[in-house]
């Protein structure tokens, strides 16, 4: 029996590729997986629960934790709210051999890479890719949650994010949610020495 903490799994990919949907499908079949809950300074939206959707912190609380080195990574989103991944829960779950995932955007993944090397943290970086850019565009427009202007901005961002695929250890193409979730589970099972 090894006491070496397992690798942290960092899942990223372009906007609208389905990271959250794949992660939800994975947890549906494998509830033993722990997905990190981000901290934020933005106000809770209706129905959001502290500690489930996000850890809701005041600006002062967030800055104090950041100054104390309590985050694995942080970002300011849309020039307003701060977001971050609390380090200690990640370390605790890895030490207990619990399959641990960070579902994060490209900038966050790059910050994790920088901080992980400082901490000596072992990380497997997984890139979730669409079958094609046209399919990504179809999915984004099909969601109907953004205005045409927002869609255009997201698609421009997606082109930049797609160009970063080579920075990652493994690519999973999200052809179907079930297939992508199964491929991700196979990776996790191998990393954590679980019989898939």
TrEMBL record:
The keyword NADP does not apply. The gene is gmk. CDD domains: GMPK. ATP binds at residues 13-20. It catalyses: GMP + ATP = GDP + ADP. The keyword Repeat does not apply. Essential for recycling GMP and indirectly, cGMP. Residues 6-189 form the Guanylate kinase-like domain. One of its GO terms (cellular component) is cytosol. Belongs to the guanylate kinase family. Keywords: ATP-binding, Cytoplasm, Kinase, Nucleotide-binding, Transferase. This is Guanylate kinase. Its EC number is 2.7.4.8. PROSITE patterns: GUANYLATE_KINASE_1, GUANYLATE_KINASE_2. Transmembrane segments: none annotated. GO terms for molecular function: ATP binding; GMP kinase activity. It is found in: Cytoplasm. Pfam families: Guanylate_kin (PF00625). InterPro entries: GK/Ca_channel_bsu, Guanylate_kin-like_dom, Guanylate_kinase, Guanylate_kinase_CS, P-loop_NTPase.
């Amino acid at each position: 029996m090894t006491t070496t903490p397992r690798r942290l799994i960092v899942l990223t990919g372009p906007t609208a590729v389905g990271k959250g949907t794949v992660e939800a499908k994975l947890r549906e079949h494998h509830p033993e997986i722990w997905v990190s809950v981000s901290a934020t300074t933005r106000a809770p939206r209706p129905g959001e629960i502290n500690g489930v959707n996000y850890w809701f912190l005041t600006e002062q609380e967030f800055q104090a934790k950041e100054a104390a080195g309590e985050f694995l990574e942080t970002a300011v989103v849309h020039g307003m709210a701060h977001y971050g991944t609390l380090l200690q829960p990640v370390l605790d779950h890895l030490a207990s051999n619990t399959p641990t995932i960070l579902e994060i955007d490209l900038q966050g993944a790059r910050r994790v890479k920088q901080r992980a090397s400082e901490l000596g943290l072992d990380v497997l970086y997984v890139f979730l890719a669409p079958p094609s850019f046209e399919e990504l565009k179809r999915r984004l427009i099909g969601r109907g949650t953004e205005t045409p202007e927002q869609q255009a901005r997201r698609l421009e961002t997606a082109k930049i994010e797609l160009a970063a695929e080579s920075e990652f250890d493994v690519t999973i193409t999200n052809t179907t949610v079930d297939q992508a979730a199964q491929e991700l589970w196979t990776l996790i099972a191998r990393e954590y020495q679980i019989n898939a």
